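Deliverable D4.2, example record:
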Amino acid sequence: MLKKRDLADCQELFELMVHPEVFPYVRHKAMSIEEYMFITKQLIEAEERGELISRTILDEWGSPIGTISLYDIFDQTGFLGTWLGKPYHGKGYNQLAKDAFFQEIFYEFGIQTIFMKIRKDNERSMKAAQKLPYVSLADESRQLPHIENKNLYNIFEISKDMYTLYTKRNGFMTDEESRLKEA
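Output generated by the structure prediction step:
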């Protein structure tokens, strides 16, 4: 479902990213495949430095369909950025990708809080965030001074504790719990 970013996936991802219903909501926009490859190379290098965590989302056949990343990592927190190609909207890939990614970043990387900055005019993402039982609105409860144009966005928060409670209540196992059961 997820894999580390790879330049070999750039052509397929770029073609999905430039769709007019996807492009406005992508954090790292590129106007050409060459520019997208350059940005992807920079993201891979930034991950090696511990500045972010970025994965390619795959469909059931292993084809790249989008990306999910944790940016601006600081003090065990970061901002989530995710996008899927238009043909994959509404098919459950977003939730599967988030579950896999949250498992990795909470239980392998030790992240404690994930923030989601969602444009108020992005109805699709706003509805998706509000459906998640482990997400809370953080606009008022958290002071995040580095957010520009705060009136354009809602800030949501996912804490490791709330996500863990959700997974335990719903019978999900963390990767660590699964490994311990196998041993």
